[in-house]
Amino acid sequence: MTTTIQVILCNCPDEGTAEQIARQLLNTQQAACINIMPGVRSVYRWQGQIETSVEVTMLIKAPVTQFDAICQTICREHPYTVPEIIAVPVSQGFLPYLNWVNEECVPNE
């Protein structure tokens, strides 16, 4: 069963930033649920250097139609120049939960 739900991953520098973005996404009904997972260690190349930082990962559950709006909100609220915003389509899930995600979000027009 293919669904119209996605999980968007976004790393933030701290829990305060993640909470601020999460509340904005929920208040505007762009997302139905966001998990904030602290203590993620990221190792990446940035401007020619290998960097390591402790970040907070957000798992944002939302309809695929909300991706552009969610990207705009994250980019407006996020302190990074290039925030990680990656959408993973949900191929299967518990139908009552998937229905709830759709019902909690305002259709993006």
TrEMBL record:
Transmembrane segments: none annotated. Coiled coil: none annotated. It comes from the Bacteria. InterPro entries: Ion_tolerance_CutA, N-reg_PII-like_a/b, N-reg_PII/ATP_PRibTrfase_C. Pfam families: CutA1. Belongs to the CutA family. This is Divalent-cation tolerance protein CutA. It comes from Rheinheimera tilapiae. The gene is cutA.
